Structure formats: structure tokens, C-alpha cells
Amino acid sequence: MRGAPSHRVPSVKRAALAVLVLPVCLRPLAAPADDEAPTAPTNPPRENLVKQANAPLSDILQLRFQDAFFPSIRHVDGETNTTTLGITMPLPAYRLLPFPQLSLLTIPAVVKPPNASVGFGDLRFVDVAILDAGHKVLFGIGPTFVFPSASRPETGQGKWQVGPAAAIAYSPEQWLVGVLAQNPISFGGDPHRRDANALFLQPFVTYQLGGGWFIRSQPQIAVDWKTGNHVVPLDLGAGRVFRLGRRYVNLFVEPFYTVSTTGPQPVWGVTIGGAFLYPNFWRGD
Q: Which residues pair with residue 189 across a beta bridge?
């Protein structure tokens, strides 16, 4: 999960990092069998957990950790690293709206730009309402927000932003295929900082190998409408969902290479991620 543009594509990529990556599997969790106690937590199928674990918007609660390291940047000396925390929070239908909702809060906790000091990044939040959660092809729309919480100018955009978000996913058997689109637009903030208006596309593909193992690809494509800058990376990662005591855990590693860009962007990098999964959160897990 890399990131998104600020006043130019490179800054956004450092500030957002993993938030845009948005695989979505929106099937409801399996219901408990009739002979189970009503309060007993259920163990969802491993196949569903693998799909959910690889969806930044997910219908299970997750606590996520990601670290993205970029050792080489075009036209810039030095390396960069971003550590991101994330929380996915699903809301069942009628808990707030008459539709199921999937949300993600992304916290760039440690952002290290090239040749600059470490700082806190801009908070990002996206919430998508699922218009039809009963079929294999699922669609959702909602808002996306960016909050200017960065502790240093180099680690954020300095702008309040809001815009549209949409996701579509197809989930046949071992596959999860789809795309998430977000376009936050600035409406306030530091008047000395450049206005923000950028499109972020995250196509995603996950294939299950069995036993909780999977391969995945989630390139973070960004287009800055203000500057015309863009970045198009390719990536391919692998990981596994497994039990650690009573808790399900997801771990993965995902290297990437930038195939097309304008301006200074990472030539290549690698993201290491992990998450604690809470599939029975609304059942008292």
C-alpha cells in the first residue's frame, strides 16, 4: 500500500501510503448453525477470511499495521519510509443507515521523507455504503476525507479535503477482483499550500492457494488533476492468514516497481503488513 499525491503526486504517496488500496469482499459472514448457542462466536470459512483480510474496506473489524520502505527515488537522493496504522470498521444495515457500511481510518503514524525529519501524516477516512450485498458482484459509494493532521509540512498536504469514493468487487471461488476509486478535493486549510484534487485508483486481485496462503496485487495508481502528475506502479505480494492462539492474523509482503511516473517517485519498494482480525466483533468477540 503506497500512497497518494499532495500538491504533487509524490507527497500524497508518502502521506496516504496504504489507505488507498481497497480490495473489497462484501459477503455477509456465515450465520451460526441452528444447534449453536445464540451467543456462541462463529468461525467464518478460511476462504472468506483471506478475502476480507486483503480488503482495506472489509466487513470484519481489523487492526492493521503496515511499513513501506522506498530505498530509491527518482531525481531525489535518500530513502523514505512510512509506517501506517489502520482500522477497518463495518456497520451492519440499519446500525446507522439502511445499508451495510464499510469504513477505513488510516493513520500515517511515522512518515520519513527523503532528507527530512520524521513526522506524523494526514489522517484519512473513507466510508462506503454497500447498495447490494447479496450477489457476487458488489458495488458501494460514499465519501472520502483527508484531515490536515501532519506534524511537519513535508509529511502532509495542509488541506482539509472531501470527495467521492466508489468500490466494485467480484468474488468467485478463490478469487477477489475489483477496484476502489477515491477523489478527495481540498476546501480549506493552509492558504499557502497548493490546492489538492487527485484521483486514486486501486485495482486489486487476490488468489487463494489453500491453507490460508494467498498471492495478491494492489497497485496504487494516482493522478493529480492540478499538476497533471501521475504514478503507475506494478506489484505482486504473498502472505497467509492463520491462527495465533484464539486470534486470526494476516501477514504479507508486497514488493512493487514504478512503471510510469512524472516527477520524483519511488523507483521500487516493499510493503510489509500485518493485521489482527475480529470476524465476530458484532457477536461479542
A: 159
